[in-house]
Specification:
Layout (H helix, E strand, L loop, with lengths): L6 H7 L1 H26 L4 H13 L3 H10 L3 H10 L7 H19 L2 H24 L1
Helix pairs in contact: 1-2, 2-7, 3-4, 4-5, 5-6
Length: about 140
């Protein structure tokens, strides 16, 4: 079936087909980029948290911060901000933690809007292509 399909003729006859191909390529690229990012950021936050708590109980905040820096999980970056604040029990630590949480959330949600947009417009472009073909 596909052996006889002529891609150049299909693209020349319908520019909407080309738009669908571009949408598919963009969606695949963003999905692969996000999958690679999430794969790199995986980790076990429970082990890191247990190690950090153990070091905090021993009054060694610098070693607890180093343990959190060693993990690739987003929890590590947030915990480092708390450990590096001047007063861990006061408001500055809370503010730094909120800022770090917002930053990590932005990194995790990067380019997800592109996927949502493609999911919304691709069926409509496909419908437009169908109508285009019927009209021709």
């Amino acid at each position: 079936m596909f052996a006889e399909f002529k891609w150049t003729e299909a693209i020349a006859d319908s520019p909407i087909f080309l738009v669908l191909i571009v949408c598919s390529i963009v969606t695949l690229a963003v999905a692969i980029e996000r999958a690679m990012y999430y794969y790199k950021r995986r980790g076990n936050p429970d082990d890191t948290l247990a190690l950090s708590i153990k070091r905090v109980m021993g009054k060694d905040l610098k070693e607890a911060a180093r343990a959190c820096e060693a993990t690739s999980h987003p929890m590590g970056a947030v915990a480092v901000q708390v450990f590096e604040s001047q007063d861990p029990s006061g408001e500055p630590a809370e503010e730094r933690m909120q800022i770090s949480l917002s930053h990590q959330k932005m990194l995790l949600e990067k380019n997800l809007g592109v996927l949502g947009t493609m999911a919304a417009i691709a069926p409509l472009v496909g419908l437009l292509g169908t109508i285009w073909g019927i009209m021709r």
